[in-house]
């Protein structure tokens, strides 16, 4: 049972860390870089990136962060671990909820605008996308997933002291 407990905690930590990296990369590199481009480039590049990110690697981390953290909570019910794990789970659920309620609708609306070469008013499409809202909520995801990762790292440290 010890190996299963540690494996769940490691999987939660790894998937959460991977997602913190994804959100952080968007926050400090991808969105600022795209923000400096013209409307056609922004719309086309964002649409392409959003289509590409829906893949097994991303989905494993995205869903895995919540599921593995929940499993770690269930398997590691020790009172010395549970507060850290529950806090990490709450943050991972928050990240999941923000993604589904804010980012997915914004991303889908931008993709639904169609081929940038056929859009008559690219500036209006970009404005409706609302880059500032997207980035603000992505900062919430970045900070929340990074905090969850830190909590899980601490839980691993505590777990190492418990047998």
TrEMBL record:
Pfam families: Anthrone_oxy (PF08592)
InterPro entries attached to this UniProt entry: Anthrone_oxy
Highest rank taxon of the organism: Bacteria
UniProt keyword list: Membrane, Transmembrane, Transmembrane helix
Keyword Membrane among record annotations: yes
The keyword Transmembrane helix is assigned to this record: yes
Residues passing through the membrane, by range: 7-26, 57-77, 84-106, 139-158
Identification of the protein by name: Membrane protein
